[in-house]
Amino acid sequence: MSVLDNWGQWKDYLGDRLNRAQDDGMNSNVITDLAYQVGDYLARNVDPKNEQERVLADLWSVANKEEQHAIASMMVKLVQNNGTR
């Protein structure tokens, strides 16, 4: 089972990666830009595995670049307190 199959596991996975990036000293602007790049990659190359990912993919597909950056920023905020630590 992939982390993409379960929304809670996906958020925990992203939360772990965010915590690691912050611990390594990565600033929030770089993190948000990376989140945008990951979101763009997923939207172009990965089929959504659950309803939540489908909603995100649909929103991403109708958003302009500025709105996509806002979605990425909100995803970072959503997972800030997630993860296994």
UniProtKB/TrEMBL annotation:
<dbReference type="InterPro" id="IPR024702">
    <property type="entry name" value="Uncharacterised_YmfJ"/>
</dbReference>
<dbReference type="InterPro" id="IPR021637">
    <property type="entry name" value="DUF3243"/>
</dbReference>
<protein>
    <submittedName>
        <fullName>Uncharacterized protein DUF3243</fullName>
    </submittedName>
</protein>
<dbReference type="InterPro" id="IPR038292">
    <property type="entry name" value="YmfJ/YflH_sf"/>
</dbReference>
<dbReference type="Pfam" id="PF11588">
    <property type="entry name" value="DUF3243"/>
</dbReference>
